[in-house]
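Students often ask what a 'structure token' actually looks like in practice. Rather than answer in the abstract, let us consider Major capsid protein E, a protein of 203 residues. Its sequence is given first.
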Amino acid sequence: MGLFTTRQLLGYTEQKVKFRALFLELFFRRTVNFHTEEVMLDKITGKTPVAAYVSPVVEGKVLRHRGGETRVLRPGYVKPKHEFNYQQAVERLPGEDPSQLNDPAYRRLRIITDNLKQEEHAIVQVEEMQAVNAVLYGKYTMEGDQFEKIEVDFGRSTKNNITQGSGKEWSKQDRDTFDPTHDIDLYCDQASGLVNIAIMDGT
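Now compare that with the structural description of the same chain:
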């Protein structure tokens, strides 16, 4: 495009990425920062028994402490990056008004800022993928170039993995008459922990 021709920018559209970190928002709201390379994941096992009625004159029983297990891992780094060269700052940027061109220093700052936004978005997508796998399967895998494959297993009970038998799948039921309430109650009763939220798709 020539800079000395009569042109005017009527407007521009920016394509937005349809993405929301739903699982991070719902299940992993808290961020914990470590100052060490290794991270410890603790799982406290055992249930708290219900207190029993006893006679005031009978000696009480000592309760067992709950046990636990610790997994230690060294997580991988996620470092997306962009290359910047001077030619990008010389040319007009998308969305820049041809009649009011910005100087190269401003363009350089805008390009770097946009790159940082994209890189942050890329990192959040990786974190969301890990969150989805952690919720659905109780574990996720980290792997990449020059990085040894690591499986992060949260030790979730296999009772929390639901497999609907042949012919029992909700997707094969009559939507007008089928009520999944009984199944949901059963799944909650069989779960190893407290269920306070359910997410379903439209299929």
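One point worth highlighting: The helical segments are 22-27, 86-90, 104-137, 181-190. Ask yourself how you might have guessed this from the sequence alone, and why that guess would often be unreliable.
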